[in-house]
Design brief:
mainly alpha; elongated
Length: about 100
């Protein structure tokens, strides 16, 4: 019975990681497409949480590597958010 519980726990963890990664990919695409500082902040928070969770759940070299990459991506997203908030880009309609 313990083996079945462990297998279900592993499956639930894998599904959680995939859902988290899917949400992160969706918001990343939306942030780069709309150039919005607020969405980049959401991406930074989700990426940081996913990186910390990923490194905790997948405890081998690959899991730690992906966790570190996601944490670094959260810093990049924070930088993009600050850049867009402090110095917003002009849109084409504002230039005319």
């Amino acid at each position: 019975m313990s083996e079945i519980a462990d297998a279900l726990n592993n499956i639930a963890g894998a599904v959680m990681l995939l859902v988290t990664f899917g949400v992160l990919a969706f918001f990343s695409r939306m942030a780069f497409r709309q150039k919005s500082g607020i969405i980049f902040m959401l991406v930074a928070g989700a990426s940081l949480m996913a990186g910390l969770y990923w490194g905790d759940q997948v405890q081998d070299v690959m899991g730690m590597s992906i966790g570190i990459v996601l944490i670094v991506y959260s810093f990049v997203s924070s930088g993009m958010a600050l850049k867009l908030i402090l110095k917003p880009e002009k849109k084409e309609s504002e230039e005319d």
